Amino acid sequence: MCAASNNFSSLLFFRLLAGFGLAAIIPTGFSIIVDYYKPEERGKYLGIFQMVGILGIAVLVPVMGAIDAPSYTFGLESDLITLFVLNEINPLTLPLLTQLFIFDTFMKYTVHYGAWRLGFTLIAILSFVAAAVVWFLIKEPIRGASEKELKGVLTAEDAEKYKIERSAIGTIFRTRTILAMMAQGMIGYTPWIVLQAFLVHWLESVRYIPPTQATLLFAVLVVGAAVGNALGGFLGDIGERKIRNKGRIIVTQISVFSGIPLIFLILVLPLSITEYTILAFVTAILISWAGPAAVKPLVAMVTKPEIRSTALSIEQMFEGEFAAVAAVVVGWLADTLNGGIAGLTMQTITPYMGYWLGALPLSFLLVLFTLSGQSLTTAMLWTTVIPWTICFLIWFIPYKTFPEDRDKILKILEERREELLKE
Questions:
Q1: Rounded to the nearest 5 degrees, what angle is found at the Cα of 178, between the Cα atoms of 20 and 52?
Q2: Is 142 left (phi over 0), alpha (psi -120 to 50) or beta?
Q3: Maximum distance among all alpha carbons in the chain?
Q4: Cα angle 113, 119, 121; round to 5
Q5: CA-CA distance, 327 to 198, in Å (whole number)?
Q6: HSE-up of 278 (CA within 13 Å, CB side)?
Q7: Is 5 helix (H, G, I), strand (E, B) or coil?
Q8: pTM over 0.90, yes/no
Q9: What is the rounded CA–CA span in Å between residue 343 and residue 352?
Q10: What is the rounded distance in angstroms from the CA atom of residue 43 to the CA atom of residue 369?
């Protein structure tokens, strides 16, 4: 349906519909994994589950880029430093390149118009294949059977007796550990949204890294995040076995805290592309532990089996909805700082770069983009370092709430065991 859209309104509507369907994947996958594996092993498998999803993005994005409209300029219009050097060597370079940029724009709006639809078509085909694999190969586990208290005594028929009740939503919102997970998620996921939305543009416009290299660097960040998810899950399980009720939280705090100095170094230090790549990869690995190491395992351990998927869905809803505002906040800050130069540049210069290169001095454009980049850097610093600092502090709350909430669920599970043994 997205591929068949004829205007932005219909595309937005169909993307919302697709979002409703895709949103079910995470809580459903979470529920299946939790019901297959015991608490001490869930982090590992949750991490692998997330890693595979992220690697899918890393593979598909370049493929979708390859089937989209080709670039006849190879991104040179964004590489002002190279343009400046070429123009200094030969003053005829810029007029010739300007004609190439105009030709590229013309081709995108004529010959290759609508090439973006191919990406949506590819995703639709792969989604049908994935649905078929799940339908025929995955066997749904007995809900709650992985719990030590119910292992060996709970049957599929028994599990049907414990269904979600109307009071479940109220129970979820009265669980203090769940509230802490919501709070840390809403604040802690904000920097991720900021990096996803602005990092490539920041690398191009502030550090003048060529578009192809900036995109490759972002791909390295994605791969690092995938590795970090798997590693975080393993470390969380180790923490659970070593320090019960605290180990997962400690692992997560290490992860969150590491992001504060690392993202500061990325945004402040002028580094080479190799140094940025190494630092971005290390950063991505270290800051990706929270979900599989603690958030999802803790949600599972403080809720009854029949409401776990609902609890995670609510947590993810608050996390995603609040953090989505971050991109708007960063854009507003960047547009406001330095007298609004960034906003003016993004609205009037960047979309028509091929035309402005022939109309304005290259040195003037460099100054304009430098000032715009300073605004964006400051905005990104505020919306990454500050949220992660707050998130780190919020993670002290579960030290008190998690043991209490977990004991309540263990008591309920013990009561169910006794009830089932009597039957």
A1: 50
A2: beta
A3: 91
A4: 100
A5: 8
A6: 4
A7: coil
A8: no
A9: 14
A10: 44
* Phi, psi angles (nearest 5°) of residue 52: -65, -40
| Close Cβ partners of 13 (under 8 Å, ≥ 6 residues apart) | none
Q: Which of 61-70, 199-208, 380-389 has the highest mean pLDDT?
A: 380-389
| 224 pLDDT above the threshold of 90 | yes
Please identify which residue in the block is written with the tokens 């009037």: 348
Distance from C-alpha of 130 to C-alpha of 124, rounded to nearest angstrom? 10
The token pair at 225 is: 């995040």
Q: How far apart are CA 254 and CA 246, in angstroms?
A: 13
Q: Is the pLDDT of residue 210 over 80?
A: no
CB 224 within 8 A of CB 288: yes
Q: Hey, what domains does the chain have and what are their CATH numbers?
A: 25-68+116-140+177-422 (1.20.1250.20)
Query: Does residue 210 sit in helix, strand or coil?
Result: coil
For residue 264, how many C-alpha atoms fall within 13 Å in the half-sphere facing its CB? 11
Mean pLDDT of 243-253: 95
Please classify residue 398 by burial: count the beta carbons closer than 10 Å to its beta carbon, then call 0-12 exposed, 13-18 middle and 19+ buried. Answer: buried
Looking at residue 64, its pLDDT comes to 67
Which residue is listed with tokens 């982090």? Answer: 43
Location of structure tokens 């995108």 = 108
Q: What is the CA radius of gyration of the chain?
A: 25
Q: 47 near 230, Cβ under 8 Å? A: yes
- pLDDT of 66 above 90: no
Q: What integer is the mean pLDDT of 64-84? A: 64
